[in-house]
Specification:
GO terms for molecular function: phosphatase activity. This is Putative HAD superfamily hydrolase. Keywords: Hydrolase. The chain has 246 residues and is of the alpha/beta class. The protein folds into 2 domains: 165 residues, 3-Layer(aba) Sandwich (Rossmann fold), CATH 3.40.50.1000; 45 residues, no CATH class. It has 9 helices and 6 strands. It has a 6-stranded parallel β-sheet. Strand 4, helix 7 and strand 5 form a beta-alpha-beta unit. Helix 1 packs antiparallel against helix 3 and helix 3 runs parallel beside helix 5.
Length: 246
């Protein structure tokens, strides 16, 4: 594990002729799926909890993994059925294709780290991004899941970056995404919506965007994260985490 990198995080500009001192090179971007590459389908979480007979703030995957082994597969299939229904009405996030075209033009590697299972991820990529390559793709089968940084560090290692995440950006919409990226040493970018806006001030969030292609201008000129919020009041941090726990 890379350890936590010094904040604010910064990367050298990707634009031709741009300068940003001695900022390090960006080696890749890791994306969440639901709420990030596609529009949020948060209603799924309520349906999943109802199917499993649990309530907030119990984590859905933690609950499943706590079940006896002979009960886990049925529980997994119950939530997979909900995801299959939801994937039929997936909608891409604004700016999705524009950002991916830009990253390809700049040679930036793209990976995925999600708590979804593989079918909704495959559906999204084949439906909306058939010409774009992502890899590795870390789904629910990889353990431990976010907010543990293991999935992001696995992607970094697959890209030949040893076990360091500090030359990467994690883009997501949840506290799990921000915390996993932060713990991996990656810079974190929050795709803001009405539900997660409290996380804009969270200590694990380096930068906020309103839609995906907002990231293009930032990367062209050089990524610079927000001021370190490690001295943020503990109760504020706790309130944000409680508000965003799914």
């Amino acid at each position: 594990m890379s350890g936590l990198s010094v904040r604010p995080r910064r990367f050298a500009p990707l634009g031709d002729g741009e300068q940003n001192g001695d900022a390090p090179r960006l080696n890749g971007i890791v994306f969440d799926v639901d709420g990030t590459l596609c529009q949020p389908q948060n209603y799924m979480f309520g349906e999943m909890r109802a199917a499993l007979g649990i309530e907030k703030p119990t984590d859905i995957l933690d609950h499943i993994y706590s079940l006896p082994p002979n009960e886990q597969e049925k529980a997994q299939e119950d939530i997979r059925a909900i995801e299959r229904r939801a994937m039929s009405v997936q909608k891409p996030q604004a700016g999705l294709l524009k950002l991916m075209d830009y990253l390809d033009s700049r040679g930036v590697q793209k990976g995925i780290c999600t708590r979804n299972f593989d079918a909704p991820v495959t559906h999204l990529l084949t439906t909306f991004l058939p010409a774009h390559k992502f890899g590795p793709i870390v789904t629910r089968d990889f353990r431990p899941p976010k907010p543990d940084p293991a999935g992001i560090l696995h992607i970094a290692k697959s890209w030949g970056l040893s076990d360091r995440g500090d030359s990467l950006i994690m883009v997501g919409d949840s506290i799990d995404d921000m915390t996993a990226g932060y713990k991996a040493g990656a810079a974190t970018v929050l795709l803001v919506n009405e539900v997660n806006k409290e996380l804009a001030e969270h200590e694990h969030t380096d930068l906020c965007i309103n839609q995906l292609d907002d990231l293009i201008g930032i990367l062209e000129k050089g990524f610079v994260g927000q001021i370190d919020k490690s001295d943020e009041a503990p109760d504020t941090k706790k309130q944000a985490e409680e508000a965003m726990k799914q």
